[in-house]
Specification:
Helix content: 40-55%
Distance between the termini: 30 Å
Largest sheet: 4 strands, parallel
CATH superfamily of the domain at 2-101 and 217-285: Alpha/Beta hydrolase fold, catalytic domain
CATH class of the domain at 2-101 and 217-285: Alpha Beta
Strand order of the largest sheet: 1-2-3-4
Order of helices and strands: HHEHEHHHHHHHHEHEHH
Radius of gyration: 18 Å
Number of helices: 14
Amino acid sequence: MIEQMKIIDPLTNPTAHGVSASDAFHIVIPSMPGYGYSEKPTTTGWGPARIARAWIELMKRLGYKKFVAAGGDWGGIVTDFMGAQEPPELIGIHNNFPGIFPPEIDKALLIGGSLPSNLSAEEKAACDRLADTYKHVGYAVWMGSAPQDAIGLVDSPVALATFMIDHDPRSYALIARSFDGVPEGLTPDDVLDNVTHYWLTKTGVSSGRLYWEYKGSYFDVKNVSIPVAVSFFPDEIYTMPRSWTERAYPKLIYYNKVAKGGHFAAWEQPQLYSEEIRAGFRPLRR
């Protein structure tokens, strides 16, 4: 939730940011079960598909007859599942963590299998990046197998901070430079606010249960057939060839390679992320 706070004013009050009032949004930012201010699940079954159904029901109960959804990280996976479920009220999605890898290629990269020989240079580069990412997701493997063992994350703020900061090499570098005084993206207060959010709500362990609940791939195609906008931030943990993106989303209405930004784009580059949301959903306003 903390990671989304900076985009609220640019998207709800666009004229204050030099943008037309016609680009304004209502924003609903729910915390996923077990995260932040959300209740911790008392039963199993709260994977991304169920969360997607819950978000759809939430929007309907709030009175929205038509709405769009956007997300990155786990939110991107949930957003893909919302799109795959195709509720009539959902007119489109935006994703900066889209499921675009062909399943057979994603599986080969995970287990070290052979790849097709006809990959383009862009597709081969994407495979190289994802193969490298699979070498650095030990935290996901751990939480996916025994999340309740991570008791140190609610017992020690230092343990929690250490665990949260070391997400992936590129994000780690972006966070580290903020403590080195580089005036770009995150600040030390941003990082500490996010850790504090998990610490005060005691969700360091419960947030890991989602990794245990989900048995699918983070990166492969989720069979979304409604309109989709994709923003590719260059320091994401994988790259997004347009060829695979178009194949994954047959109704791709927007695709853009952003100049800078990484895995936590809304948090790190809120202005650019807000611009991407406006541009991505603009075709659906016509």
